[in-house]
Amino acid sequence: MNLSSVRQKFYQETQKPDEDIDLARASLYIAQEEYPEIDPEVYIQTLDGMAQELSKRLPENKYPLVIIQNINQYLYDDLGFNGNNSDYYDTQNSFLNKVIERRLGIPISLSLIYLEIARRINFPMVGVGMPGHFLIRPEIEEIEIFVDTFNRGEVIFTQDCQDRLNQIYQKNIVFKPEYLAAVTKKKFLARILDNLKIIYVHQQEIEKALGAVERKLLLFPDAHIELRDRGLLLFQLGYFPQAIRDLETYLEIEPNSEDVSTIRSLLSQLRKNIDN
């Protein structure tokens, strides 16, 4: 496996048991491919400092809603963190170093900061991968509340999540309990990479999109859609033999997929390009 040093660090971090993965550090390794000059330890220490400052302000009453209120006041009122409504698809919103520096982010990146601060003050929380809008919640079974980090830490309930889904998709969504299930750290990182992949493809930054897919495959080697997408991106970059290998493997694994005819047609074109 020929990986750059930073990608090797990402791979090593994410091969640990899920509970042992340092989410902030792994996220900074994602950022370091875009910003190779950064030192991840600087941002880890910044998060440490934030948590230390917050812990001084916590009241003796450790009731969950009180703690959430204090975190919200510190992050949003005192430090000025906000959701970036004006430029939601700016890639800087997905990189932890930039979110810390600019105090701007999207739901997944603001959730990351919130989770890291909460963990450091011994108030464990987990990510909730609701479609279209990432949330977090206290890791306390008997308390069914969610925190919307993009909207200044607003506390919402299950019905609010349904309403938010309907609003996002502009129609009534059939709500499923799994929409509010906790996500693993690997899936958390995969969601960051998915966001970057979509933005890079839209911006036609194909090599960077390929990098996002490759890192997702480090997380989930059996992600067949990512294998297909890697093949498609390799095709766009002119790496035809590698593209053929990925797309042929995809068809072997997913012989009944809806895009079989499209992929077969592309493979035929690729083989002609190589023969010529």
Automatic annotation (TrEMBL):
SUPFAM superfamilies: TPR-like. It holds the Pfam family Transglut_core2. Residues 43-193 form the Protein SirB1 N-terminal domain. It comes from the Bacteria. Belongs to the UPF0162 family. This is Protein SirB1 N-terminal domain-containing protein. It comes from Mastigocoleus testarum BC008.
